[in-house]
Amino acid sequence: MLAGASADRIQLVVCCGTGCAGAGQAICAALEAQVKRQGLEAAAEVMPGPCRGMCQMAPTVAVLPDGLLYCRVRAEDAAEIVSQTLGEGRAVRRLLYQEPAEIQSLPTWKELPFFSKQVRIALHNCGFVDPEQINDYIARDGYRALGKVLTEMTPESVIKEMKDSGLRGRGGAGFLTGLKWELCRKAAGDVKYVVCNADEGDPGAFMDRSILESDPHSVVEGMAIAAYAIGARQGFIYCREEYPLAISRLQAAIEDAREYGLLGENILGSGFCFDIALKEGAGAFVCGEETALIASIEGRRGEPRPRPPFPAVSGLWGRPTNINNVKSYAMTPQIIRKGAKWFSSIGSPKSPGTAIFALTGKINNTGLIEVPMGIPLGDIIFDIGGGVPRGKHFKAVQTGGPLGGCLPAQSLNTPVDFDSLQEAGAVMGSGGMIVVDDDTCMVEFAKYFLQFAAAESCGKCIPCRVGGQRLLEALQRITEGKGSRKDMAIIREVSQHMMNTSLCGLGQRTPGPVLAALRFFEEEFRTHIDDGICAAGQCKPLVRARCINTCPAGVDTPAYLAMIAQGRYAEGLEIHRERNPFALICGRACPAFCESKCRRGELDDPIAIRLVKRFMADHEMSRPWTPPPLGTPQEREAASKKKVAVVGSGPAGLTAALRLAQYGYKVTVFEKLSVPGGHDELVDPPVPPAARAAAGGDRQRASGGCPDSLRQGPWAGLLAG
Amino acid sequence: MPILKTLQDLTLLRNNVRQTMAADLNTGTAIYVGMGTCGIAAGARQTMEAIQAELEKRRIDARVSAVGCIGMCVKEPLVDIQQGGGSHVLYANIRPDMVGRLIEEHVINGRPVRQWVICRIPAEQAAEV
């Protein structure tokens, strides 16, 4: 940084860093000579300065305090610089710094969907200011809204402005912020409080943390404005102790604001007094509920109490208290500065403004975004979020955290605002958005959130304390394959009671995720219960390995892969044939679901299971497999007297035919089409003729157990393979 | 720090800060490192230390600031370089071993390292309040 420029003299700072030293000194001398010659010594001084980068522009001359930068200066430019800049007070245009074309040709942030679809109000400073420098905030018009409020507005007009803006509480419930302030202002009592709820405990949510860490002053300013509007002189920020960085930055912000007199007595000479204390929460999720939060600040156990009375009437120590979320306060200064009209013109009519989301889970661009209300859910996930990684399919998105709900793919057109999300079956919540792909089991997913919510129940009221456990037990049974249809009924019934009778939002919304999952993914619950199948391959008791789980034939993939790795191909094939006798054709025609679920694929690329299998099967071309007889000789003798017709020569038909033949039956396969093979033959793309020829070569002809009717066709080979 | 007694004091302070900042930014290099919890967890502190060490080694007097999170958590550590008060150039996933090249090519030679660039943020849009 340059040495502090004295206000009365203009400084010409010449770069004299290592690279410029020689040229710099010459320019220094030339400028000094010119200053002397033109009699400007009293007005200006020439000084050598350090290297400041941009060496491609060197040598440079900086004019301070104006902040002009002359580039590629030569000694002969000195006269012009001195006479024009110092004498006439205008810049030498031809020497001024110009951004290199290489930088100007880079794509701007508005060309990236991640930024172009965002409207940044609460986040407008995030990433641009040093959160620990109050001057950075002030330079970007920080505390001007507070100044405006204190000098130009009455508390009533502030409340009116907030009501007109239509800002709804960003904590999740969506209550009109201005109205809340008004209720608190009108409540009887001379001591009132404002509280900032920064107890962000949802898994996968970090909106509040990010604002507190990146722009703490906006929250401090917003709280001061609210305090002025409702007539409070003390504020509390309730921040969870797990956010040490947010707490230290907030603390610094509060102290800096005090030093400037922006908090404390007689702020900006207006007579308004306000200060903020920071309260660290011990990490109980329920303390995000406002009455529990109040109890915790008061030093009592963090347990909710029935409402009414609402905190606006009787809150902290029985005094009227206004509680808002971090995001609501962070938006307040902007609304005051730019006006209610501006704010309400953004977003949708019933939910004006912007919504902030933390995008996490199976999504390419995990991060923090701010979007206008009413944007379709799909735009957030696919344009801003960049879609689901590794070519997997979007399955669902959980909004509103552990008390919210999930929405399936058919809800992707839902506009994101308080009311539309509610209609669609989810909730806005405070802004966590967790995306899951088709590798996620929705029963397990619901169970995860339920586990969280049930563990965080404070235990005060029975519906929440007991109901959560009963729900969890039912889900536990289902994910272990021990569930029954009755469990689904239990879930619905217990949920209903919890929603109707729990004391606070935690208990009332604990069933949210499981009900939403049941609503949109009931089929998945059914397959767990009826068939003991977890299609996503997540429920451990039901799934040995995900590749086996997803294989329609249930082939023991890891086992034969291990055999191949040891060069024991025949044994590998033996394992394969236990479930599917057609290794050769499978190695060519199978869509290889196993590869899409391969764990290795989460690391880099999945194992090329299908090719490896083909390699294994091709080993047997020289020594064709002879299907061994099954059953006892007596059984086969008896069976040989019977004829069996198999209708359809698809993989199932051929397998049945093969097994029957191995048991000694005389089998005839009937096929409507001119070629046997069914699905395997008709797959798109079809089995290439070369592959079929290879598989159907003479050497491959099966003998013995192969069904007579197919013996002569090319499929005989495939069957044998 | 002086106590601000009136709105005029605040305005005066804002104007002074803006002018000092502009003079500094317009005539030199500013490097911003995203230092939210997300950035720090991804290694931003090490990256920032590497930047400071590299600048020290090359005796470059640049303004290095820790800023909050711009939201692209997946691209942390994020480094943003601004020269001559111009565009912010945002770089993704800058590890300490990438810092040398970044300083050499961008800060010294004014050539952005394209394959690491996310985007450019024009100065007037970044300064929008």
What is the topology?
The complex is a heterodimer of chains A (721) and B (129).
Chain A: E1 10-15, H1 21-37, E2 44-49, E3 61-64, E4 68-70, H2 78-88, H3 101-104, H4 113-116, H5 134-139, H6 144-152, H7 155-165, H8 177-186, E5 193-198, H9 207-214, H10 216-230, E6 234-240, H11 244-259, E7 275-281, H12 290-297, E8 321-325, H13 326-338, H14 340-344, E9 347-348, E10 351-352, E11 354-361, E12 367-372, H15 377-384, E13 394-399, E14 405-408, H16 418-424, E15 432-437, H17 442-456, H18 462-479, H19 485-501, H20 505-509, H21 512-520, H22 522-531, H23 546-550, H24 557-565, H25 569-579, H26 583-589, H27 593-596, H28 600-603, H29 609-618, H30 633-639, E16 643-647, H31 651-662, E17 666-670, H32 679-682, H33 689-695, H34 715-720
Parallel strand pairs in A: 1-2, 5-6, 5-8, 6-7, 11-15, 16-17
Antiparallel strand pairs in A: 1-3, 3-4, 9-10, 11-12, 13-14, 13-15
Helix pairs in contact in A: 1-2, 6-10, 6-13, 7-8, 7-10, 9-11, 10-13, 17-18, 17-21, 18-19, 19-21, 21-22, 24-25, 24-29, 26-29
Chain B: H1 7-26, E1 29-34, H2 37-41, H3 44-57, E2 63-67, E3 79-83, E4 88-91, H4 96-108, E5 117-121, H5 123-126
Parallel strand pairs in B: 1-2
Antiparallel strand pairs in B: 1-3, 3-4, 4-5
Helix pairs in contact in B: 3-4
Question: What descriptive keywords fit this protein?
Answer:
heterodimer; A: 721 residues; alpha/beta; five-stranded mixed β-sheet; four-stranded mixed β-sheet; 17 strands; disordered C terminus; B: 129 residues; alpha+beta; 43% helix; globular
Determine Rg of chain A (CA atoms, Å): 36 Å
Q: Name the helicity range of chain B.
A: 40-55%
Number of beta-strand segments of chain A = 17
| Spatial ordering of strands, largest sheet of chain A | 12-11-15-13-14
Q: Give the low-confidence spans of chain B.
A: none
The structure class of chain A reads alpha/beta
Radius of gyration of chain B: 16 Å
Strand content of chain B: 15-25%
| Rounded mean pLDDT score of chain A | 89
Number of helices of chain A: 34
What is the SS-derived class of chain B?
A: alpha+beta
Order of helices and strands of chain B: HEHHEEEHEH
Describe the global form of chain B.
globular
* N→C terminal distance of chain A: 76 Å
Low-confidence stretches of chain A: 1-6, 693-721
The helical percent of chain A reads: 40-55%
Major pleated sheet of chain B = 5 strands, mixed
Shape of chain A: flat
